[in-house]
Amino acid sequence: MTVDDWYEQRRRQGIASTPQRVPAGASDEGLQKQQQETEEEEDDEEALRKAREWDDWKDTHPRGYGNRHNMG
Questions:
Q1: Whole-structure pTM value
Q2: Which of 14, 24, 40, 64 is the most buried (most CB within 10 A)?
Q3: Please, are residues 24 and 14 in contact by the beta-carbon 8 Å criterion?
Q4: What is the 3-state secondary structure (H, E, C) of 3-48?
């Protein structure tokens, strides 16, 4: 029994749905989904870079660092 056969059997039983396979160039929705995933991955890289920079800044600037005027 192949994986596709198993999925087909499960689909007929109503237990699980088959995985969505989109052939290359089959639909605009598939292309839009792929572009959105690519954009999300790029956003994740940008967010990761910002988080790392913030963490580095916090390492070099301990809590309470900064304006100490009028503190006695």
A1: 0.35
A2: 40
A3: no
A4: HHHHHHHHHHHCCCCCCCCCCCCCCHHHHHHHHHHHHHHHHHHHHH
∠ Cα 23 28 30 (to 5°): 50
Specify if 67 maps to a domain.
no
Range of the domain at 32: 3-60
Q: Does a structural domain hold residue 54?
A: yes
In terms of C-beta density within 10 A (0-12 exposed, 13-18 middle, 19 or more buried), how is residue 30 classed?
A: middle
Gap between the Cα atoms of 32 and 28, Å rounded: 6
Q: Cα(16)–Cα(7) distance, rounded to whole angstroms? A: 7
Q: What is the pLDDT of residues 33-61, one digit of tens each?
A: 888 777 777 677 888 889 899 999 999 88
